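Structure ticket #2291
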Amino acid sequence: MFEQIDKIITMIDEAVWGLPLICLIMMTGIFLTARLGLLQIRHLGKAFKFMVKNEDEGEGEVTSFGALCTALSATIGTGNIAGVATAIAAGGPGALFWMVLAAFFGMATKYAEGLLAIKYRTVDKDGHVLGGPFYYIENGMGKNWRWLAKLFAFFGACVGLFGIGTFTQVNSIASAVKDFFDPETSHVLFTAFGRDYSVATVATGILLTLCVGLVVIGGIKRIAKVSEVVVPFMAILYVALGLIIIFTNLSAVPGALVSIVKSAFTGSALAGGVMGSMVVAMQKGVARGIFSNESGLGSAPIAAAAAVTKEPARQGLVSMTGTFIDTIVICTMTGLSIVIAGTWLDPGLEGVEITMAAFQKSLPFPAIVASFSLMLCLVFFAFTTILGWNYYGERCVEYLFNRNKSVVKGYRWLYILAVFIGPYMTVAVVWNIADIFNALMAFPNLIALLALSGVVVKESRDYFARLKQVK
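Resolution: structure written out below.
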């Protein structure tokens, strides 16, 4: 019976994350890119400037940089390490090309999300901010569309509690620590459900629960403060490791780049015929790119809405840098490392094992140092994803239950409980369920982005015209 349920859930997952949704997200990005006149190229410099230069005026709860780091904390996760490897293993090096292309158009989508989040957010008398797709659907499209906003909030709360925010990330952390410190499961503490649980797994679960609890109980301000420290640290550490691989294998870089571009249009020999394998490379690359940076899914604007700012377009630019950092920088580092090392060709490896093998092979350090470095990155990536999705889930619950604080607190404690039991969960089915809810979040958000694209264009023109007058 459980096998049948698993098959049904897998079929639904493959259906909702199939070509229709991928094409809709890509076409939305292309449409917004055209309407905004390649804004992600023309104003990328301003975006990075605004990323580190916070506004002094305007309403909000955290700085623009804090809001960005909160969003990045949720998007930079195990998908940047394991997801890229999975895409390349299935679609060849060309998957990385399509991943980056999806991110390029996704920058315009993320810009629109950030802009609308600020324009249509609500601020109560206590200065508490709530915004995101549910409010730009209700306030931008009209009260008649509130049912669509409720749908988005319901799906978002489910994603946070049942999968991406908790079980899958916690399990990834526990597995990474256990595989490094006790790979043979020599120190078994107890056995349950036919599985042995080592001291490393149990200790990791308890410590992680305490750390998450101490942060999330403090709300958005504490999450943002922790994210402002942890996110830059983990991103810089991972990028530094990637750059070391590139510079110590410099002679292999041109060949890797040629392989990536060539494979994008000819496909991988492992995937079959030219046309079929090219489609596989495109589908896997675009899907993993979208899943990694969440452009179009509607999660990041929930964090963007909390930023202290009075300019919607300015926050849109700051939000846009998140997609650039997540996919065009970090995912590219992972992909290049894998292609240079050639570990994607090993049929005995899958997921994070491919990236681990690439780091061990290409870094000029002992294998144990390379393994520890990647484990550290995995732990930080997954930990910050837990924090970011807690905030997203709470804001969705807050909207669903008309800002009922008791319900929000209940959700928070359920979230901490889910983190506690996460190391002991079998994550295959949970991950698929989370995938489904994540995809379902995208549909209401994309409808709103297309419906309000005229507002995005008008706000952008007004803002950039005012910037020119100031100069």
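Closing remark: The chain has a mean pLDDT of 85.
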